[in-house]
Amino acid sequence: MTLLAPTLEAFFSERLINQRRVSANTVSAYRDTFRLLLAFAQGQTGRAPSKLRLEDLDAALVGKFLHYLESERGNGARTRNVRLAAIHSLFRYAALRHPDHSALIERVLAVPPKRCDRTLVAFLGDDEVDALLGAPDRSTPIGRRDYALLLLAIQSGLRVSELVSLTCEDVVLSSEPYVRCTGKGRKERSTPLTKATASTLKNLMREVGGELSEPLFPSAHGAMALTRYAVSVLVARHAASAALQCPSLGTKRITPHVLRHTAAMRLLHAGVDSSVIALWLGHESVETTQVYIHADLALKERALDRTTPVGVVPGRYRPADKLLAFLEAL
Q1: What does the pLDDT read at residue 142?
Q2: What is the mean pLDDT for each group of 10 consecutive residues in the chain (330 residues)?
């Protein structure tokens, strides 16, 4: 066995799991990266993954692998950068164990991430939220479960991984109801619930049995929790159904993360400070929450109104003539 195999095994068992105690999602993401990388390296060198040497994964091969991700697998720059970050993490660990390969390792660590466009976050307006919540058929158990999940996602802003990991024990229905979860970085947080959401979850728990250890959102078979993929599918399905009543939904790609963005934007529109929104969403830094301010055109409109010269009526230019209005809209 070469140096690469024991180094990679120790990287997962010692560094990621024992020392850093990363989440299962992080372990899975890193695992998938090295599955792809080792399979690609096998195709390039003709060596089985267990026979690959550390020097086989040089900067040139890593560069070819990143190009393969974009050109053949159709991955975007962000996914490419995530894969590269995992590779960099392995090689930083290898630098401590194999200083004799420092030149090779430094060349791999010098492979830069690719710059990518930063688009505005997508979120739903009030009419779109109402249409989406009206899509599940609440006369059926699955429809009631889906409605409760959508309502909680839009009100709480929980990540999809946090939603599917909830158990009945995580919902506290006291005089001040809240839901608790463990998010990124193993940080536990609690999010208050509105009366409507608390009542919906109470009814759902009564229907699924209410055992403390049972998943809050079970699959159709009842024993297992919904997967992240299943939640993505049900959100997309209900969004497509709701688009028949609210056509603007058909112009957007609705994912569980869009519901998280929607929760943040509703808080922002209500005048909640961005530092509170960061705590609400479980962000590591308040700077992460600034993307919602950039996406909030109404907030920018209010800022523009405050800068209007004295004696001028606040507001944007509105052409009086229909033809001018048509040209202005182009």
Answers
A1: 93
A2: 88 91 86 95 93 93 96 91 95 93 94 81 89 94 94 93 91 90 80 93 85 85 85 95 93 91 88 83 71 61 60 62 68
DSSP-based three-state secondary structure for 50: helix
Strand order in the sheet with 171-172: 171-172, 178-182, 188-192
Per-residue pLDDT at 210 = 63
* CATH of region 4-109: 1.10.150
Q: Are 66 and 72 in contact (CB under 8 A)?
A: no
Give me the active site residues, please: 159, 184, 257, 260, 283, 292
pTM of the prediction? Answer: 0.70
| 73 DSSP 8-state letter | S
Q: Which residues are 191's β-sheet partners?
A: 179
267 to 123, 275, 298: CA distances (angstroms)? 12, 11, 13
* pLDDT at residue number 297: 61
Tokens, residue 104: 């090779």
Distance CA 113, CA 125 (A): 35
pLDDT score recorded for residue 34? 95
Say whether domain 126-301 belongs to CATH 1.10.443.10. yes
CA distance linking residue 205 with residue 200, whole number of Å: 9
Tokens of 328: 């202005």
Write out the residue limits of the CATH 1.10.443.10 domain(s) in the chain. 126-301
Measured CA to CA in angstroms, residue 205 lies from 110, 145, 199, 247 at distances of 52, 10, 10, 33
Mean pLDDT over the full length of the chain: 86
* Nearest-angstrom CA–CA distance, 299 and 271: 10
CA distances from 236 to 10, 119, 141, 159, 308 (A): 40, 21, 19, 16, 42
Portions of the chain given CATH number 1.10.150 = 4-109
pLDDT at 186: 73
